[in-house]
Amino acid sequence: LMVCGTWMTLGTVVPDYAQRMTTPKSVTLGVLVGLPAFAAAAALVGSSLAQAPNLALYSALLVACVVTNAATNVVGPVTWVKQGAGRRLSSGAAATIVTSVAAIAAYAVLPWQTVVAYASWAVGAGALFVAPAAGVVVADYWVCRDRVVDRDALQTASATGAYAYAGGVNYRAVAALFAGMAPDVWSFASNLSLDLAAKGAGALTLESVTDSVGSLLGSYVVNSEYSAVIAVATAFVAYVSLTVLFVPESLKVARAEAA
């Protein structure tokens, strides 16, 4: 779940790349050829740098940080800035704005170790809710919409479009998300309550609660496969069932257009 919590967040930038791919073949080549090839190359470089002097080692680390952040943290904001400016800005100008704001804001953040501590909490707790979200996405794309995505409809605010929902919210997805979260949240809360009760009321401090939560999150990481499977399956079944019982008008429109 910790891995899901980290990489699912990075996965939100995938559409920014995918919309630049003109054919399904380009996606297949990227996943089956490009990704393994570059991953293998990175492994080879990493193994060779293990014996490298510090100058070469940290130079490569600097390049890796720049490339990683450019790929994962810049593309999405750049796309957002360009769209907000009515696409009057070039990609280079938008990237300059994003990196400048990030550089200035960096001095306003908390000390790094404090940030790391709170980030670990956020990823650990947030990861409990990522798996059911994945179940909803898979159910909607693979089952309900039969792997058809209307890019133009996604970018419009039409109340009768293929992705329109009551008040702009897909309540079936929200209900399925909570259904998928329920087993993990109930188990986590029950174990936390028992752990705190065993320590006694007099020993309840912020530090003791933090230690208990951290210990329980660690156990969830060890058993993440089982928790994720249960959450994904529950959310998947709940979303498909709710969609079959209460078919939204937008889905009817999408199916009619796909036919």
From TrEMBL:
The chain crosses the membrane at residues 27-49, 55-81, 93-112, 118-143, 163-182, 226-247. It comes from Micromonas pusilla. The keyword Transmembrane applies. GO terms for cellular component: plasma membrane. It comes from the Eukaryota. This is Uncharacterized protein. Its main location: membrane. Pfam families: Transp_cyt_pur. Coiled coil: none annotated. It is found in: Membrane. GO terms for molecular function: nucleobase transmembrane transporter activity. Keywords: Membrane, Transmembrane, Transmembrane helix. It is a multi-pass membrane protein. Gene3D superfamilies: Hydantoin permease. Belongs to the purine-cytosine permease (2.A.39) family. InterPro entries: Pur-cyt_permease, Uracil/uridine/allantoin_perm.
